[in-house]
Structure formats: structure tokens, C-alpha cells
Design a protein that fits this description.
Elements: H1 2-8, H2 12-27, H3 32-65, H4 112-132, E1 139-142, E2 145-148, H5 162-172
Helix pairs in contact: 1-3, 2-3, 2-4, 3-4
Length: 173
């Protein structure tokens, strides 16, 4: 059953991050294009689990059908004089190795790469969604220059881009 667990663990952290964070992003007030691209990424991630599940089941079946060496069988010893045959005394039980809390991992690997990969896939999907419809995300193009929104009210356009902050920056530079 160890092979089934290892097969199911392939890119497990990344799948969890993409699905859960993707559903959170889809619930946020984001442009429709971002929601569509992120939802498609979540569906592809969920569909990619099906081959992993099939591999895990096939690995478990292969492990179950493999012949196992006999364990715990004691060869009969010749009977002692005048006494019945009792066989060899059982070996002392061996204490199980310290197991990690997560299960039967033989080679524990850090999952940081999987976490980063999941977040980067989600970030790429969000970027593609914004690129597909920049106007819905509040990005506009005017005279060849990108401008973000209209700025926060009362701040003179400082927070939203525009010419206000650029002119003030040029005065100090």
C-alpha cells in the first residue's frame, strides 16, 4: 500500500494550493476573464488527479498480487526426548521504526517547491486573465502609456497612477 500512498502524493501540495486558492480567487470580485481562466486551471488540476488515482490503484493491485515471502513461520525442530514438538521459539518482536506523523514516507522531501509551483500557476492564470481583458481590471491605455484606474478620491491621483504622481516625482528628481 506504500506505493499507492506515494503515487497519490505526487504534486499533492501543489494540487491542494491550486484548487483551494483558485476557488478563493474565483469567489473574489475579480474580472470575468480572470474568473474564467482561474476556474479552468482548477478544473484542469482536478482532472489531472484522475490519472494519478489510476496509477495509485494499479500500484496497490500490483503490490497485493505480488508473492510475499513467508513471515513468522517457524521450522519444526526435532522433538526433545520424551516431549512434544513445540517448534522454534518465536523471535523477539522488533519495535517499529519511528514513523512521521503524515504516514509511511520512506524518503521525506520538502514540499516548498510544490507550494511555490502551485502559487505561481495561480498567479500566471490571474495574469493571463488580466491580459485578456485589461479594461475590466481597471487598466486603460491612453496615448501609448498605461494608466491604472483614476486614483483614490481626495489624493489627487497619487494612488491610481495618472499624471499627478509623475509630475510630482519629476520635481524631486
Amino acid at each position: 500500500m506504500r506505493s499507492a500512498g506515494l503515487a497519490l502524493d505526487r504534486w499533492g501540495a501543489s494540487r491542494v494550493i491550486v484548487v483551494n486558492a483558485g476557488l478563493v480567487v474565483a469567489l473574489l470580485p475579480v474580472p470575468a476573464a480572470v474568473r474564467v481562466v482561474v476556474s479552468a486551471l482548477v478544473v484542469v488540476t482536478l482532472a489531472a488527479f484522475i490519472p494519478v488515482l489510476v496509477l495509485a490503484v494499479l500500484g496497490a493491485v500490483k503490490t497485493m498480487r505480488a508473492p510475499h515471502p513467508p513471515t513468522g513461520t517457524a521450522a519444526a525442530t526435532p522433538p526433545a526426548e520424551g516431549g512434544p514438538s513445540m517448534g522454534t521459539p518465536p523471535a523477539q518482536p522488533v519495535a517499529p521504526a519511528a514513523m512521521p506523523p503524515g504516514g509511511l514516507r520512506t524518503n521525506p522531501r520538502p514540499r516548498n517547491g510544490q507550494l511555490v509551483g502551485g502559487f505561481l500557476a495561480l498567479l500566471l492564470a490571474i495574469t493571463v486573465g488580466v491580459f485578456a481583458d485589461p479594461a475590466a481590471a481597471g487598466l486603460t491605455l491612453r496615448a501609448g502609456h498605461a494608466r491604472v484606474g483614476h486614483g483614490a478620491p481626495g489624493l489627487g491621483g497619487v494612488m491610481g497612477g495618472g499624471a499627478g504622481w509623475w509630475q510630482r516625482l519629476r520635481r524631486f528628481g
